[in-house]
Write a structure and sequence with these properties.
Layout lengths: L5 H15 L21 H7 L15 E9 L9 E9 L9 E6 L11 H7 L7 E6 L16 H6 L2 H15 L8 H15 L4 E6 L2 H11 L4 E7 L11 H18 L16 H17 L2 E5 L8 E5 L1 H9 L16 H13 L4 H11 L8 H10 L10 H14 L10 H4 L33 E6 L7 H9 L4 E6 L13 H12 L22
Parallel strand pairs: 3-4, 3-5, 5-6, 6-9, 9-10
Antiparallel strand pairs: 1-2, 2-4, 7-8
Helix pairs in contact: 1-3, 6-7, 8-9, 8-11, 9-10, 9-11, 11-12
């Protein structure tokens, strides 16, 4: 759910879709054709005939049709004009009409889809035998009129919480009334407008990360246009605005990696020692958070491709972001390789508590080195317009602060796991108080949290080591639908399709074809992640 740096976010998406191709099942004859002839409009006709603008991607073995469609910036404000939304359709290979159209969103908010058409086509190669692939860049991104507001990824991530709040408010002022144009609902309606132009009766929706928020919004607004849904790395529309499940999932992930990394307890004579003690790792995390709360560390981070290092104030909030968001990324993608961030955390926390800051600060430098100059306006606008807050959007700023502080005061002891409430909530760049200065005037109303959903097959996948979008949120995401089913994928983190065996992608693509998960026994064979041993 949290923001991933532009570079790391792109790597996550590309890596996920590149691995999808390993186990896609062949087409079955049981599917009924759902695609239709394109609507007889100039825009739709141009798209169906092939070709398109110069930015239209090339995908080997497939025709790709691209175009843009003019859409109202804000539906009830014609004075704010229109914006062009770009889309690409990667056509199926087999003769005859497509048996379905799969619309994919890779996350963000603010991630692009069209420029990764080749990666998605490779990933979904089996489905593209007889299914079309629809890619729509969300408004404000990629081929849908990029919108800058002067807030870079690096400035946002390196900033203190106060600096982040101020930057978000400046972004809103620069966008002005058009800030209301950039919402999940508007993007959902853009996708449906493209669907209508193409003459496709129904879509199969495939959402990753933020896409698991966008696709349910689409389903709630256009229920009759949905055939089935797959959501990976999911959270519900009515998620906790204080992010407590994620805070608790950090401790759970540490316990699980330690429990699974040891072959036998140390107490067994002659038996191998476990790599780490999960309960000890959680206590070390709490101690580290407490020390950083009292005395943050100043860290010089050498940015990739940049000159002088950039200074970072490493606080309890930055530790929380490292532990719940960064440590969840890519877990399980290379189980035979060296430990990733999550696998190194128990050792780094142990050393920190013992007075050696080196291992932990190395992880910090590696994480922040990829910060980029990409503008974050599409991300900030969607987060501040749509996401649930611990205050009323209609309240003036002083009252918002009162409501927010009251919510923190009402949180039960231990609700934020190893962190303090204030410390943890300075970690999420899409939560806590970061949007508290987003203006009331000329902005969108918050996204409804309980729309009526279609009764179609829905599969929700979560990695059981993911603290960004943990199992608890995935289960709630599945319950949003009358026919939702949930699978927890062991030994994986955010977006479990990253695991390399093809087990997860086989389940999800089989579900798209048949509406059933089939045999999921392969999940039990997914190996534990590598963990750096903690020496006592």
């Amino acid at each position: 759910m949290a923001q991933v740096s532009a570079v790391r976010r792109a790597a996550l998406v590309v890596g996920a879709v590149a691995l999808l191709a390993s186990a896609l099942p062949a087409a079955t004859a049981s599917e009924a054709a759902t695609a239709a002839t394109a609507a007889a409009t100039p825009t739709a006709r141009a798209a169906v005939q092939g070709g398109g603008p110069a930015w239209c991607p090339q995908v080997e073995g497939h025709r790709v049709d691209c175009a843009t469609v003019a859409r109202p910036a804000v539906g009830d404000r014609p004075d704010l004009g229109t914006l062009d939304v770009g889309y690409a359709v990667v056509r199926h290979r087999a003769p005859g009409p497509a048996k379905g159209t799969v619309a994919v969103n890779p996350g963000g908010p603010g991630e692009v889809a069209i420029d990764r058409a080749e990666h998605f086509a490779t990933a979904l190669n089996g489905l593209l035998h007889d299914h079309d692939l629809l890619l729509v860049d969300p408004r404000g991104t990629g081929r849908s009129e990029r919108m800058p507001c002067g807030l870079t990824d690096a400035d946002y991530r390196f900033g203190t919480r106060e600096e982040q709040r101020e930057a978000v408010a400046r972004c809103a002022r620069r966008l002005g009334p058009r800030a209301a144009a950039y919402t999940t609902a508007a993007t959902a309606d853009d996708i449906d407008a493209v669907r209508g132009l193409l003459g496709v009766p129904q879509l199969t929706l495939y959402g990753l990360s933020y896409g698991t928020y966008l696709m349910p919004v689409y389903a709630g607004r256009h229920p009759e246009r949905v055939r089935s849904i797959v959501l990976s790395g999911a959270y519900p529309l009515a998620f906790d605005p204080l992010g407590r499940p994620g805070a608790q999932a950090v401790s759970l992930a540490l316990r699980r990696v330690c429990e699974r990394a040891g072959a036998a307890p140390a107490a067994v004579p002659g038996g191998p020692r476990p790599a780490c003690d999960g309960e000890r790792a959680v206590r070390d995390l709490a101690t580290t958070a407490s020390r950083l709360r009292a005395r943050p560390l100043e860290v010089d981070v050498p940015l990739e491709g940049a000159g002088a290092p950039r200074g970072l104030r490493f606080t309890e909030g930055k530790l929380a972001n490292l532990a719940y968001e960064a440590a969840s990324r890519g877990v399980g993608a290379d189980p035979t390789g060296p430990p990733g961030l999550l696998g190194e955390l128990p050792h780094a926390l142990d050393r920190f508590v013992k007075g050696d800051t080196g291992p932990l600060l190395r992880l910090v430098r590696e994480e922040y080195a990829s910060a980029s100059g990409e503008d974050q306006a599409p991300y900030v606008a969607v987060v501040c317009n749509d996401y649930r807050k611990a205050w009323s959007a209609d309240a003036p700023l002083p009252e918002r602060w009162r409501q927010y502080r009251g919510a923190l005061a009402d949180a039960r002891p231990g609700a934020f796991g190893a962190f303090s409430a204030r410390g943890y909530l300075e970690g999420p760049t899409d939560g806590g108080d970061v949007c508290i200065g987003w203006p009331r005037e000329d902005t969108a109303r918050p996204q409804p949290t309980h729309p009526r959903m279609p009764d179609v097959p829905v599969l929700v996948l979560s990695g059981d080591l993911d603290a960004n979008t943990p199992d608890a949120g995935g289960r709630l995401a599945a319950r949003q639908f009358p026919d939702g089913r949930f699978l927890s994928v062991p030994n994986t983190g955010h977006v479990p399709e990253l695991e390399p065996s093809g087990c997860v992608t086989g389940i999800s693509t089989r579900f798209i074809r048949t509406g059933r998960t089939g045999d999921t026994g392969c999940l039990r064979a997914l190996p534990p992640v590598a963990v750096t041993p903690v020496r006592r």
